[in-house]
Amino acid sequence: MGLRRSTRRQQAAEERTGTAGPAYDAAVELRGVQRAYGRGSGTVHALRGIDLTLPRGTFTAVMGPSGSGKSTFLQCAAGLDRPTAGLVRLGGTEITGMNENRLTELRRSRLGFVFQAFNLLPSLTVEQNVLLPMRLAGGRQDRERAARLLDQVGLAGKGRRRPAELSGGQQQRVAIARALVTSPDVIFADEPTGALDTTTAAEVLALLRSAVDTLGATVVMVTHDPAAAAHADQVLFLADGLIADRMPRGSAEAVAARMTALTADAARTARTYAGAAA
Ligand code: ADP
Q1: Of all atoms in ligand 1, which is nearest to the CA of residue 75?
Q2: If 232 and its partner were Cys, which of 61, 96, 150, 277 is the partner (CB 3.0–4.6 Å)?
Q3: Domains of the chain in sequence order
């Protein structure tokens, strides 16, 4: 089912862009992406040139010390912020230079989002929350699909509840069902387990993993938690606005060790700069 859908999506992407070929099989493509804040001597280079291709049906974790550019990366990759230089393609469509209306439409119809704080609308039922992206995109609200997704995330029969009646882990499952409802090109997750206890976090991560494995979803997740990153196919480590390292799927311990080494490097560099400036 997932495979058939992604083939259709790929064809649609080729029709939209008028371009077939292997490059358009990518769910996410960044080329030379830079993002600077401010001007003159006070300029902060949050991203210094990110090159990245993420194939469809993959799960990628993004880690890095505080201030390394993770949030900026996610915002630029998801069309929530505009790079200062470079280009971003999502599902084969270049979003750099799109006007705000088209970007909003693309985010609603072709991207899914999962946030640390769940971001469900408290006045809507669980089912209405899941269907919200369809409603906002002006499409038919497919209640059967909502029921199927709620079943897949382990919340069968809870469609009429309000978010406040559910546990944190259940609310995040609703958010994942909502993120999946439009069969998006990419799901962007920002610390999706940051507000959950370890056991519930592991369940939510297993769910994201299974969305990738069984539905062919593509997930890009920013996290500071090595145990979360260990669920991904690949871990990207950002440092000072660049991809400093990559690691194929590894244990939480291996991810933590790599992170410790990176943080020590970053601290050494900062000390060197401070020494040079003194
Ligand atoms: P991370 O998510 O890894 O902590 P960020 O992407 O938030 O990193 O930040 C990267 C760098 O960009 C930091 O030096 C941060 O202070 C700076 N930065 C982020 N957002 C802004 C902003 N709106 N204005 C100025 N500087 C910013």
Answers
A1: 6
A2: 61
A3: 24-277 (3.40.50.300)
153, 174, 154: which is closest to 163 by C-alpha? 174
What is the tens place of the pLDDT at every residue in 84-109? 999 999 999 999 989 999 999 999 99
CA geometry: angle 190, 192, 196, nearest 5 deg? 145
Instruction: Please determine, for residue 207, whether its predicted confidence score (pLDDT) is greater than 90.
Output: yes
C-alpha to C-alpha distance for 264 and 278, rounded to whole angstroms: 21
Q: Indicate the SS3 state at residue 219.
A: strand
What residues are paired with 115 via a beta bridge?
190
Q: Any bridge partners for residue 48, and if so which?
A: 34
Mapped onto helix, strand or coil, the DSSP state of residue 25 is helix
What residue has token string 């997932």? 2
Give the Å distance between the CA of 246 and the centre of ligand 1: 21
Mean pLDDT in the chain? 89
Is any ligand 1 atom within 6 A of the Cβ of residue 37? yes
